[in-house]
Write a structure and sequence with these properties.
It is a single chain. The protein is built from three helices and 17 strands. It folds into three domains: 35 residues; 94 residues, Carboxypeptidase-like, regulatory domain (Immunoglobulin-like); 108 residues, Ferric Hydroxamate Uptake Protein, Chain A, domain 1, CATH 2.170.130. The longest helix has 34 residues. It is 18% helix and 32% strand. By secondary structure, the protein is α+β, with helices and mostly antiparallel strands. It is elongated, with a radius of gyration of 23 Å.
């Protein structure tokens, strides 16, 4: 009987362990998808401020595999385009009896929520109003302070191109290895923020590539191909509960293909 009880308990623990592994894998996948996706939200109104339901909103970008994504504003005028890959977008708003409005050069970064509230003027269907000189689009949903390094930033700013070290060198408040012309290539990256070391938490596609043991002073040997980064986000404080240590979080998003 005792042997039977032992095997039953062992089987229960094994099932619990497998379930935990599956849940952790799903959470990591969901986090990776969230890191490399963005959203466009807003409210449609007319020039008097009254809400406009039924407006067709179409987003186009070379980053989209399908070419374009569309939605229709709801009864209260609200609309939402989600799960958008990183890139630069053009958004078009159309409704019978109103002039077509077009917003171009909307740059979406990882986890960014762009709020575009649009007022449509009355006019002919074949008239189009293109808004190019609007103010910068600000993410009013997320309050986490972070430095986002876009692909243009990573390619144009002169750095040593030395993996994690080069990423941290472009973020205020952080300091890594003192690199001169690549002389620290191959060295273990140091994660420091505001004079404090250790506690680094590097992520690639939302997957942690270090152990929480980095908090005890063991630096992770993270070596990445700098040119493989589509985008990187560096956060020195204000991280959420997903980061188990204090210090610098570096989240790298790798390049991916488009429809071109």
């Amino acid at each position: 009987m005792r042997a039977k009880w032992f095997f039953l308990r062992a089987g229960q623990y094994c099932r619990m362990f497998v379930t935990a592994i599956v849940l952790l894998s799903l959470a990591a996948t969901a986090q990776a998808q969230a890191d490399r996706q963005a959203s466009i939200v807003g409210i449609m109104t007319d020039e008097s401020g009254a809400v406009l339901p039924g407006v067709t909103i179409t987003a186009t970008s070379p980053a989209l595999q399908v070419g374009q994504m569309s939605t229709v504003s709801e009864v209260q005028g609200a609309y939402r385009l989600t799960n958008l890959p990183l890139g630069t977008y053009e958004v078009t708003y159309t409704l019978d009896g109103f002039r077509t409005v077009k917003r171009d050069s909307i740059r979406l970064t990882g986890g960014f929520t762009a709020t575009l509230d649009v007022a449509m003027p009355i006019g002919a269907i074949n008239e189009t109003l293109t808004v190019s000189a609007a103010g910068p689009v600000v993410d009013v949903v997320s309050s986490r302070p972070e430095t986002t390094l876009t692909r243009e930033t990573l390619e144009l700013i002169p750095t040593s191109r030395n993996g994690m070290q080069a990423l941290m060198a472009q973020a205020p408040g952080t300091r890594s290895n003192l690199d001169v012309g690549g002389n620290t290539a191959g060295a273990i990256p140091e994660f420091r923020a505001f004079g404090q070391g250790n506690g680094g938490w590097p992520l690639i596609e939302g997957i942690a590539t270090a152990s929480p043991a980095v908090y005890t002073g063991i630096q992770p040997g993270n070596y990445i191909d700098y040119t493989a980064a589509e985008e990187a986000q560096v956060t020195t404080f204000g991280n959420d509960a997903e980061m188990p240590t204090r210090g610098v979080q570096v989240a790298m998003i790798s390049k991916t293909g488009g429809k071109t």
